[in-house]
Amino acid sequence: MDDVIITVAIIGAGPTRQMSEYIPITPAEIADSAVAAFNEGASIAHIHVRDPEAGTSSNEVHLFEEVVERVTARCNIILNLSTGAGGGLYIGADGQALTEGLQSAERRVEHVLKLRPEMCSLDIGSMNFGEGLFTNAQPVVDRMAQMMKEAGVKPEVELFDMGHIEIARRLISLGLVDEPVHYQLCMDTAGGLAATPKNAVHFSECLPPGGTWSIFGVGRTQFPMAAMGVLLGGHVRVGFEDNLYLKRGVKAKSNAELVKRAADIAQDLNRDVASVDEARRILSLKKG
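Below the sequence we write its predicted structure tokens.
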């Protein structure tokens, strides 16, 4: 069994400073958080960026570029840039769109094509997502996957529900995603598969053979799902994108604290934590 790869999801689109004063917002804060998490055992940093002034989710290339430059100057953690922005859609009860948030495949991967990270996320399925929709139409997904492949960037295939596995099989069969595939099992998102041990076992067992996988749970399910990932032979993701608490009633003061907790879980369950070089080998990354 391979060592456990710990991914740290630094900050997503949702958490705000009103929820936690500890979340990173600016490119410098995001980079500092990634480096601190690396020092506690994270091998991959999953990166979203925020507008530094408004604190809202952003997809601006120059913000990703600043984070990448700051992180790579200080450590060799694997960078996994998000391409999820541009898929959100909110619709009122009258059927009319409340936002114009959808973006083209080219816009969603613009920063990936410029910066050429080792990895980036690839959301392949549409779903209800809280009060809105997370929209990933087949033509958009196909084009994104093709551009990632041409750029030599390994996609992390995001799976929020069981049916998304069949979408992944289609992408593999068309040659749009190369094997070995790395999957992210996204548990307990608002509209996705519930984070239960039974679901974690079934989800992981239904994946196409030959790939690798990681798992995360949202909120209070973060560390139980980390334990399931360790026990089932997979890898784990923790971080402020998914959870703000170290334990009930105690906010984490940093992503590094969440990574340390995940590393402790792995070691308590008799699996070592993968170094960055080991993670590159496990994931068959071309760089490094």
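The longest strand covers residues 154-159.
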